[in-house]
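Components:
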Amino acid sequence: MIKVTADIFSGRPNPEWVVSGAEAEAALRSLAQTPHAAAALDSGFQGLGNRGLIVEILDDHSYSDYGVPASFRLAGGGSPAESQAREVAERLISGLTSPGAGDHPAIAAEGMLPLNEDLKKFVMTGLPVGGGFATMQAGEPATEIDRSADAGAVAACKIETTNFNPAFWNDPAHISKNNCYNYATNRRTDTFAQPGRASGHMYAHINCTDVGNGAVSDGGTFSCAPDNQKPRWYMALVIAPGPGFIDYHWYRKATQGFWGHKPGGTAARNVDNAGHVVTDPRTANRGPYTIFCRFMFAQKKMVVK
Amino acid sequence: MPSVHVEADLYSGRKNPGWDLLRSDVTLFERRLASLTPDVTEKRDAADGLGYRGLRVTVRGDGVHQDIHVFLGNVTIVSATGDRRQASDPERAFEKWLIRTGKDYLSPEELRYVMGG
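Structure:
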């Protein structure tokens, strides 16, 4: 019997399930034939997004019969036999919807997404591609928008980053004229830019869908942007839903790995409302901006105003 | 008489609501500001981050050039030369009075939100 964890999320519990019987035997047999497919737990892609599967052997005989480690990472981009690892991973993911997959004491069902076809598809399509060190994962499905729309953004996407450079934004001549959208898109227009305004499709309502679509209308994208659209900045959209306080806010990932942001006309910073460095906008202290919408990308053709 | 512009520093993406004081309110504003008790203790500006960050008041004209920040009992006044002084605003009385001058420019929900601090 095998416990499988899809190492996807940062804030919410990762999906877990067990694979048993013939499916487990087949997976272990494949791994025994390609021992390098099982990678160390700390190997491969370790950033935000899909980091592959964490596999734990739950019974002694499987461990000894097949000679695989008691726990290992699979299809996280860290194995020299990544294509074989991926094959086994897909087999294990297929078992996510098998009867009883979530019924085991080793499975912490609290707060977990339901084990269904949507989740299976999401985990399957989001597996890192080989050599995942050079790529960036585009995050988990949003909680407030159509999940299927986000599933496409889970594929490994190449992005560019800049060093965190608050001085550029906090120049007294510009600080009050540029907001979070300017910062996230890395476009200092001095117009307090609004999603969709440049393209004539400014949001009608402040919610994840309208504000996100406004940014897409400006040339942003929910899915990977091609190489000819460099630089492709990685952004995150959040919403303050009210009552009383209704607004949106954006973050942008910096080269250092953390996220920068600029609350309205105030200074750009890399810390949240609790003073902690923003390592993940999904889990940062965002004050009234309680809804995390999604990750998305600015690209070369994007124009904001 | 100088002009006094008040901005409720609330939002990150949207433009903040703002308004100019009526002439009759400018006189009251000057009186209320002058009556605040100076506060010489060194304070760090606590208005930062996401959410309500206080009122930003701009006073211009008649030889006056002040940028004033009013937030949760603290008032910071910066002159054109960069001189900075602080005052106390017990019970947020000055801040709440300023907020009420903008009741026609704030939605009822916004008004409640900023009054609540």
